Structure formats: C-alpha cells, structure tokens
C-alpha cells in the first residue's frame, strides 16, 4: 500500500482562476521530494489535490493505480498523512488526545484505543519532543509546539505517504532540521513530499525537487538539476550564485543582493 503516486494531467481552478495546469508527475517509495516555487505558484493547492482535500477539475491522482477520488477517506488516511500549512484547533483537547486521533483510521466506530495505540503514540511524541506537553490543552500551545503535535499525530497514523505543507514555517531552526531529519530517516519505506520555501533545505534534504511556476512544472529532478542559476532567475526573478555545500555537497544558493 502506498508504493507509488501517479498524478496525471492534473488541472485545478478556484472559480475562473486556473491555479494548476496539466501537471503529470510520479512519486515513488523510498524518496524525499520537495515542491518549491514562489508565493502563489500553486504548491499548497497541489498538496490539497493529491490529498483529496479538493477535487481536481481535470486529470487524476492515483495511489498504486487506484484513483483517490474513489477511495473512502478512512482507507486513504491509512495510506496518507498530511501536515497542513495552517492548523486551526479551537477545541479544548489535551495534546495526548489530539495525537491519539492519528490512530482513528484503524478503529471501528466506538472501538477503544488499546495499549498498542498508546505505545505508538508515545513513540512518536517522544520523537517530536511533545511527550512533555501531553497533558496540556492544545489551545494553550505556541504555533511551533502545535506543529510538532500535529507531526506526532501524522506519524502515529503510520501511513506510507506523508505530505508536509510548509511544516517548517512555524518551527525554529533547531526543529526545522530535526523535523526534516525525522522524515528523511523514515523515507526508506515511505513517500515523503514536502512543500519548502527554503531552497537550501530543499537542496539538502531532497532526492528530487519539483519547481512550480504559475501552476506548471518548470523543472524537476535532482537538486543539482533543478537548483541552477537559470531556473532561479526564470522562476523567482532573482539573481543568485550557486556553490557546493561543503557539508552535504548539495547546491547551495546565495542571493546576489
Ligand atoms: N481557497 C482559495 N480560494 C481562492 N483562491 C485561492 C484559494 N487558495 C489559494 N488561492 C489562490 O491560488 C493561488 C495559488 O495558491 P497556493 O496557496 O496554492 O500557492 P502557494 O504556492 O502554496 O503559495 P505560498 O508560497 O504563498 O504559500 C494563489 O493565487 C491564491 O491566491
């Protein structure tokens, strides 16, 4: 389950504003993918389409050759976990209860969580450094703490596909790196797709990068193929120098200011 995602000729519009145009891509197990591109280029809209939050106007999204629009939400939730960009939780659940919700796809109606669920939840709360927050109300946490709790919930879903929509936006530098490391360390038997704004994080962590420009794929491939002076100029209208990162040996972008 969740070995491969095929996006075929995907187009999407909000009203008469076309936001995604004829996108075809494949994502395979064992890889960390980043989606990059300027503000408004359609990155979040793409993540919402491939997670069935919104429905493509044309084209399809297939997981292991099955159209996600024909899948039950619970079945999809066993295969795919999403960490969204904007997390609004205004009900007074404890952090532990919120993370436990990640186990719901595995339960029948009114079936209780068991010791195995608790052990899974504790494992991922410790990994995301949220175990010490377990008895707090979610409404009392900071933006970065909430994002870590939502990551723990997504990990507790134990899905083969993880979508991260700008997970780093609320996180300080330590947690940005820690988080991307957690997800990268899990990639062997998962598909990880992350929307990232920081080109150098994308370059360091990704096996493949997809560069969007106005809802179309401008470039895709390895960091070396995508992170080039020409692509950055064309898509961000920004002049940059590219060096080799001395630690990771990946392309390292420095804007010319
Ligand atoms: N719910 C919505 N209704 C109408 N238009 C929307 C909606 N959500 C996004 N848009 C528009 O669709 C376009 C793409 O937005 P999207 O959020 O996918 O871009 P993005 O690349 O994720 O941007 P950012 O980097 O700023 O997060 C933008 O022009 C945006 O204004």
Automatic annotation (TrEMBL):
Signal peptide: none annotated. Keywords: ATP-binding, Nucleotide-binding, Transport. It comes from the Bacteria. The keyword Nucleotide-binding applies. It holds the Pfam family ABC_tran. GO terms for molecular function: ATP binding; ATP hydrolysis activity. Residues 5-239 form the ABC transporter domain. The keyword ATP-binding applies. This is ATP-binding cassette domain-containing protein. It comes from Defluviitalea raffinosedens.
